[in-house]
Amino acid sequence: xxxxxxxxxxxxxxxxxxxxxxxxxxxxxxxxxxxxxxxxxxxxxxxxxxxxxxxxxxxxxxxxxxxxxxxxxxxxxxxxxxxxxxxxxxxxxxxxxxxxxxxxxxxxxxxxxxxxxxxxxxxxxxxxxxxxxxxxxxxxxxxxxxxxxxxxxxxxxxxxxxxxxxxxxxxxxxxxxxxxxxxxxxxxxxxxxxxxxxxxxxxxxxxxxxxxxxxxxxxxxxxxxxxxxxxxxxxxxxxxxxxxxxxxxxxxxxxxxxxxxxxxxxxxxxxxxxxxxxxxxxxxxxxxxxxxxxxxxxxxxxxxxxxxxxxxxxxxxxxxxxxxxxxxxxxxxxxxxxxxxxxxxxxxxxxxxxxxxxxxxxxxxxxxxxxxxxxxxxxxxxxxxxxxxxxxxxxxxxxxxxxxxxxxxxxxxxxxxxxxxxxxxxxxxxxxxxxxxxxxxxxxxxxxxxxxxxxxxxxxxxxxxxxxxxxxxxxxxxxxxxxx
Length: 484
What we know:
The chain is of the alpha+beta class and about 475 residues long. About 30% of the residues lie in helices and about 15% in strands. The protein folds into three domains: about 5-165 and about 350-435, Tumour Suppressor Smad4; about 190-345, Rossmann fold (3-Layer(aba) Sandwich); about 445-480, no CATH class. The chain has 16 helices and 17 strands. It is elongated. The two termini are about 25 Å apart.
């Protein structure tokens, strides 16, 4: 059995290979949609965790063809190649790129050569190098892999454009790796592109369709469009179409007259009436039956609609922002034609470099809700969460399905089980992060790891187990004796 870190990496690669087989392109992890070639993208390294430089998380170094040195400090004449520099990539002017200063990283730690879409990496420094959690001296790293300078630094291999910064009309105006004024967290190119699209869509009067998987933040996008629009002072009415009760959908949407359809029933304005002068957000609009989708057409064309039990038409001045995790083609074609502006909220599989910042945000948000749960893992000097780099590595390669919701669930399990003052990998987290169809290490693999590594402490890491205790349980189960 491969170590658990390799399991996650293999699973991520399988997903990328499957996409490549279907589309003829490798989408990478930044800015590349399925079926869209991205010839301008280069291999890149993102800082995902740093022991000595936590404020640099999210910085990026783009690697053009050729060799580079990753290490501590500035360039020297005796260096075998130019120094790799990292910089924050945001719209507008940004600071100059700079080398690492982490004390535990050697002055010349890695020799890296970009070859096509991969990086050839050789470790020449004092600290050990891990590729997807496995110790190596040299090897090839592809987008989606992690490189770790053991105990010092975690890097995500990615792709990015070679521009010095990110272009767009969305000005930062908030600190890096924190939520923007609309609650959206992320510094990746895809997230800045989304902010740019939100800024554009908010100034238009057209109806909007927001696409994206469950948990990608489609409602945050809708709220941002409303907050930046001329309708911001009006109501924002949100409802998931999946929660509209069958048989009452028309009444829920358009309202009903008094005593209709039953005596004693109060008059209701419906979602449309409540949203007059503002924005109506209908999540999961693909859950509406086709005939009810047709009832929206006159409303979208001119604001006209009928309350149930009334013969006279009413008018509502509203903008519809709809969302779906289904393909747009599943919507009724004439409804789709009226949703002129379309935005995509990317899932975490498309913006993996944002995972550490989003994890930090979710932990700090939980602190406000339940301080006693979170405070044990906070650095008393800075108030920042202390997170095990092994957990960061695992999350960077994990194939998320419900994205931010799933990440928050994992964080809560880790918070409930973590000890020793930091958010750590635990058996419960391992069960969540590793494909349950894959088997634990076999007795032969355990014996080989013990013989090769010489101790339980090193063997559990080589096997990809979360702790010494996890290996000790397997030793007891299989009757294997080990030193220590």
